[in-house]
Amino acid sequence: MQVIVNSDHSITGDAVLIERVETILSDSIERFADRITKVEAFLSDTNSSKHGARDKRCVLEARVAGSQPVVASNEAPTVLEAIEGAARKLERALEHSFGKQAAAAGKTPRKQDVAPVDELGELEKWERDRESHQSKHTR
């Protein structure tokens, strides 16, 4: 799984930050790594020089093989908190996305909708008898 980190002019995207993003993502979504081709992180400072409770923003976009990208974002007072929050949200979004795919692929009929083989044989016999009975009356 390839990780790409993009940051705006007010956040220094140095090697330490990139390694931190990779570690956080590895901890949270490593179990999906075989299905994800790339994760792109977009880090920004929403208020630039001003400080606030939700000053830093992290948007994570996971490119999923054979499917649409999955995106999660988070705003927090620090870059690290924004990354961690977005990683948790991305993990939940991927669980949901892969869960829906698995459910759609593995749909099976309900137990009450499935007939045992002996009942199918009886049903076929009943249909043959009914058809022969109807053909006698239409002559």
What report would you give on this structure?
The protein is an alpha+beta fold and 139 residues long. The chain has a single domain, classed as Double Stranded RNA Binding Domain (2-Layer Sandwich). The chain contains three helices and four strands. Strands 1-2-3-4 form a four-stranded mixed β-sheet, covered by helices on one side. β3 (56-64) and β4 (70-76) form a beta hairpin. α1 (15-29) packs parallel to α2.
CATH superfamily: Ribosome hibernation promotion factor-like
Instruction: Give me the number of helical elements.
Output: 3
Radius of gyration: 28 Å
Reported by name, the CATH topology is Double Stranded RNA Binding Domain
SSE run: EHEEEHH
CATH class: Alpha Beta
Largest sheet: 4 strands, mixed
- Poorly predicted residue ranges: none
Largest sheet, spatial ordering of strands: 1-2-3-4
What sort of overall outline do the alpha carbons produce when their principal axes are compared? Answer: rod-shaped
Q: Helix/strand-derived class?
A: alpha+beta
